Amino acid sequence: MATPNESNRRDFLTGRAAIRVVEGLADRGAESVPEPPLIAARREPSCLLEISRRAMATDFQVYLHARQHQKGPDAAMKALDLVETLEDQMTVYREHSEVMNINRRAVRQAVVIEAGLFGLLEVALDLYRDTAGAFDITSGPLSKVWGFYRREGAVPDPEVLQQALSRVGSRWIELDRQQQTIRFLQPTLEINLNSIGKGYALDRCGQSLAEAGVQDFLIHGGQSSVLAGGSQPVHAESQPGWIVALKHPWKPNQRLGQLRLVDRAVGTSGTRAQFFYHQGRRYGHVLDPRTGQPTEGVLSATVIAPSAALADALSTAFFVMGPEKVTEFCERHPEVSAILVCPSQRRGGFDIHTIALEDDVWIPATGATSST
Fold it and tell me: How far apart are CA 51 and CA 81, in angstroms?
């Protein structure tokens, strides 16, 4: 019988995972690299190794220097194997997952959980408190009554919405660090890690690569999460880092600007992919867990942070919080910066709010104006 790792290698060789070398990226244009990230075109030729895997309902891709690490491909495949393991642990779509086991049992008793998952839940509860409830891993019932859980959006009955709202609140989660257990203090509570789990998976991938001696890499998961380690292969006189692009909130083929990342992560939240119209009004899938209502006033929220889990979670929270509260948060946490794209007073226009963002990190596109 094949071991899980042997099966993953077979998947790799038969095309269920993909590997290719991207030569002369700048000469062929940015469209030759899957989005996102859009690795910005450079004048210098580059040589990147790309390895991909389908997991968590999206494509995870690892970019490495093609000739820098002899064992780089093996390290990348091992890291992507880990993504599949983490998905099996955290998903709410498989009854056997550890998160689903918590949801079934934690209301009756304290449940011992794996160390990495326990640490992630501690981060989630810290963020719940630090964002005044704008980030909440118990908000799943709201997504269900709005129909976003199964991508069948519909406006819920007010009474049904209120019942769902009564089941939301991370304040009812009790963690015991000494015993490494979780317990629910509200009988209908449930957790869902979709707003932080992908970023956490990227962090674990980055850790796996670093332990294998790979320091220069870029990993992304779908269209929202990026983790950059070290630098892209460029000429010695070039500035260090990886260049990724921030897309226009309505026109995905256009860029608002570029970010230069060195040992940093980016997370972006928006409603372009999931929304519906009802009686002429547009409803997006990002919900305020404190009110149960879809968030308005922000078109996209991008966060630059030390870890992908933090960037992933805060991009959702910042979408809910808006520019003023985000500015206050970043003043308390100087390691975090943000770019919020918000509707402007002119019809069809928008404003770009850069918050606590260093000049050498953000490169706005021609014609894109920002406010700080």
Answer: 12
Cα–Cα distance measured from residue 122 to residue 78, given in angstroms and rounded to the nearest whole number: 26
312, two tokens:
């992933």
CB neighbour burial string for 241-262, b if at least 16 within 10 angstroms, e if fewer: bbbbbbbbbeeeeebbbbbbbe
pLDDT tens, residue by residue, 119-142: 999 999 999 999 999 999 999 899
Please name the residues in contact with 123: beta carbons below 8 A apart, sequence gap of 6 or more: 196, 309, 310, 313
Put residue 367 in one of left, alpha, beta given phi > 0 → left and psi -120 to 50 → alpha. Answer: left
pLDDT digits (tens, 9 = 90+) for 57-87: 899 999 998 778 788 999 999 999 999 999 9
Please state the CATH superfamily assignment of the domain spanning residues 98-184 in this structure.
ApbE-like superfamily (1.10.3980.10)
Strand pairing of 275-278 and 225-229? unpaired
Q: Can you give the three-state secondary structure of 152-166, one letter per residue?
A: CCCCCCHHHHHHHHC
Q: Is 104 helix (H, G, I), strand (E, B) or coil?
A: helix
C-alpha to C-alpha distances, 153 to 45, 148, 149, 315, nearest whole angstrom: 46, 5, 8, 22
